[in-house]
Design a protein that fits this description.
326 residues, alpha+beta, Rossmann fold, SH3 type barrels, 2 domains, seven-stranded antiparallel β-sheet, 9 helices, 25% helix
Length: 326
């Protein structure tokens, strides 16, 4: 695959300087972009599995997620949350877990009712109804604690980074939006370390920002860290979870990334996403189990060629792609 001589992204080095992102990183971002554009699945009811083995899988899932979340928003900037989540205050039942967007903050808590004087009473505080810009019903599986997030805590550098990356002058629209189309399954500490890497487009206008600023993962319950209250664009699930986070969803996620041999061997058979990306490090101890599960899955599906995908793997990676009609 040919690459431009001009860097698509710059990444931050350990000494604080920036250098051109390597071609393999751009390839993974491009795969995420193609997935968001639905270019990897030809038929509406088809399911596809793309399994890639790499000498080292570091940053692959994070780069894919960055490309996917970014392109999904660019495709539909009006997308703020799944249908049915937004509600009028008068339609809320006392006891409902809610998310409220106020003038300067987002909060999650239990709605107790509207008091005399048009004051909205919640477990996270009491506010004038006129201050509530938007109310949403929290999905019960999200596990958001009571809390408040001051939107002015999002610094100027992150605003500028998001505005440049998303071609948007209103990054708060992105920060306070919800989306659980993408699920990342793997080791939370490893994925968070990869998502903490900082990148930017070349040029002086846009500062460096973390991949996490775009991917904005929500932790599934049990992952041991406070969930993101402002909003999220993906869901992160530990590969060692006892139950799939999507088991209680009305529909399975559109895309699931299984990061590592253990995540692949543990969750491939249970994954119902339209597109599953399995990323395997060839040096992992659980490689044989992952390969066995992939071979079993492939036996019931048809092969997909690289020409059919319109995407080729990074140098040194091997691709196994197959699909079936639902």
């Amino acid at each position: 695959m040919k690459h431009s001589h001009h860097p698509v992204f710059l990444v931050e080095a350990a000494d604080g300087t920036s250098w051109a992102a390597p071609p393999w990183f751009v390839d993974w971002v491009r795969l995420g972009t193609f997935a968001a554009l639905n270019r990897l699945i030809a038929q509406p009811r088809e399911r596809a599995v793309l399994a890639l083995s790499a000498p080292v899988r570091s940053m692959a899932a994070a780069a894919f997620a960055f490309g996917y979340c970014r392109q999904r928003f660019l495709d539909d900037p009006a997308l703020r949350c799944p249908s049915g989540a937004a509600r009028a205050l008068e339609d809320l039942e006392p006891g409902t877990r809610v998310w409220l967007h106020l003038a300067d903050r987002a909060l999650s808590g239990t709605y107790y009712g509207t008091l005399p004087g048009a004051k909205v009473h919640t477990s996270a505080g009491t506010y004038r109804a006129s201050f509530v810009r938007e109310a949403r019903v929290l999905p019960f599986w999200a596990g958001l604690p009571d809390g408040r997030f001051l939107l002015n805590e999002v610094g100027a550098a992150e605003h500028t980074f998001l505005a440049g990356m998303l071609r948007s002058h209103a990054p708060l629209t992105y920060i306070t939006s919800w989306d659980w189309d993408l699920v990342l399954v793997g080791s939370p500490p490893r994925l968070h370390a990869d998502l903490a890497e900082r990148i930017c487009p070349p040029g002086p206008e846009i500062p460096l920002g973390s991949l996490a600023s775009v991917v904005r993962p929500l932790h599934a319950p049990g992952n041991g860290e406070v969930a993101r209250i402002a909003g999220w664009r993906s869901v992160l699930m530990s590969s060692r979870s006892e139950e799939a986070v999507w088991a209680s969803w009305p529909e399975p996620p559109a895309v699931a990334v299984l990061d590592g041999a253990y995540a692949t061997s543990r969750w491939l058979d249970a994954c119902e996403a339209r597109l599953t990306i399995a990323i395997i490090d060839r040096s992992e101890p659980a490689l044989d189990a992952a390969v066995s599960v992939l071979e079993q899955e492939r036996a019931y599906m048809r092969p997909i060629s690289m020409e059919g995908l319109g995407w080729g793997p990074p140098a040194g990676c091997e691709l196994l792609a197959f699909g079936s009609r639902g």
